[in-house]
Specification:
By secondary structure, the protein is α+β, with helices and mostly antiparallel strands. The chain is built from ten helices and eleven strands. A five-stranded mixed beta sheet has the order 1-2-3-5-4, with helices on both faces. Strand 4 and strand 5 form a beta hairpin. Helix 3 packs across helix 6. The protein is globular and about 65 Å long. It starts with a helix and ends with a strand.
Length: 336
């Protein structure tokens, strides 16, 4: 669980640890872990269950300042206490999500209102931003704008925060060049923790922006590594099921990504108040569902009948007891 949760590369001995460890998790006798797995809502126990179901609930305790509650859960032999602690972990996770949502919305407002997306790097600060979650928000900001970001929380005369970077820009190395405006910092090329004097915010922002601009960040293009091209007519349940032999997926062993060419849109609609997109795509007599999380804006860009090149994962979607094949969309473009 720790190997997967800490996002270490799932190769060599780490892959063996994770693969065999997941087998043991499935048959665990630990009451706390059993309870946590049940409350996560995941039916299958795989690396996704740990990454998105178990780890966030454990981490939420630490992020909210109550790490001992997670420890108690795994040590407890009392079913009543286990149930209460599981509820506590879920509550902390919900609180973490609420705080994260508030900070994210506040950050986006700052970025959009001040057109900070035009800069090479995004550096913003706010009052009462919780230390435990600003790193997560920074990661989301970086993913959204594909720029390095640093989020700072103002506390008295200090600003403390976290930063995330993009491939091709060494965040730690950049901060080494800004030490005259920084109190302290630590981390690595992709993620850092930082403390500066509040009155040094402007100086630091300008200095860091200059370094980012010199690095020509605007010329760094996000890349999706495609594992293979596949025809819709060649896809069947057996092929998709066989991909499970490559699990556990994670850092260093990503879920296979495929390219699909010249697929015709048969239906298209936005979900969750425009946040996500759902499509059915055709190639001759073959048809498949496709879903794109956080790609709802595409519903305004494409129409039924348009032909698309799609990049995504192959999945089996289970809904109301019915299994169907679907593409998990990573990116799309009009066919040429």
């Amino acid at each position: 669980m720790g190997t997967i949760s800490d996002i270490v590369p799932l190769v060599d001995e780490n892959r063996v640890i994770a693969k065999l460890g997941l087998m043991l998790v499935k048959q665990t006798k630990n009451m706390g872990l059993k309870s946590l797995l049940m409350s996560s809502g995941y039916k299958n126990i795989d690396s996704n269950t740990i990454s998105f179901g178990v780890a966030p609930r454990i981490n939420a305790c630490g992020r909210m300042g109550h790490a001992e509650q997670a420890l108690k859960l795994f040590l407890s032999k009392d079913i009543y206490e286990v149930n209460e602690l599981t509820k506590t972990l879920n509550d902390y996770n919900t609180l973490r999500q609420q705080k994260e949502k508030t900070i994210y919305e506040n950050a986006i407002n700052q970025i959009e209102n001040n057109k900070l997306y035009e800069k090479s790097a995004i550096i913003i600060g706010g009052e009462n931003w919780h230390h435990g979650v600003i790193g997560i928000v920074s990661s989301k900001i970086t993913d959204l704008y594909f720029k390095p970001s640093i989020l700072l929380c103002y506390e008295d005369d200090l600003a403390k925060g976290s930063g995330r970077s993009i491939p091709g820009f060494d965040l730690h190395e950049a901060l080494m060049k800004c030490q005259n405006s920084i109190e302290r910092f630590g981390g690595h090329s992709m993620a850092i923790g930082i403390t500066i004097k509040k009155d040094k915010f402007k100086e630091f922002s300008e200095q860091f922006e200059e370094i980012a601009k010199e690095s020509k960040i605007d010329e760094i293009i996000p890349i999706i590594n495609i594992d293979g091209k596949i025809n819709l007519g060649d896809i069947n349940r057996e092929i998709v099921e066989s991909l499970k032999q490559l699990e556990p997926y994670g850092e260093g062993n990503k879920t296979p990504i495929f390219a699909f060419k010249n697929l015709k849109i048969d239906s298209i609609r936005a979900l969750s108040e425009g946040k996500h997109i759902k499509m059915t795509l055709k190639d001759g007599n073959s048809i498949i569902n496709a879903i794109g999380f956080n790609l709802g804006y595409l519903a305004d860009e494409y129409r039924i009948g348009d032909k698309l090149d799609v990049v995504g994962t192959l999945e089996i979607n289970s809904f109301n007891g019915v299994d169907s094949l679907q593409i998990g969309i990573k990116d799309v473009m009009k066919s040429v």
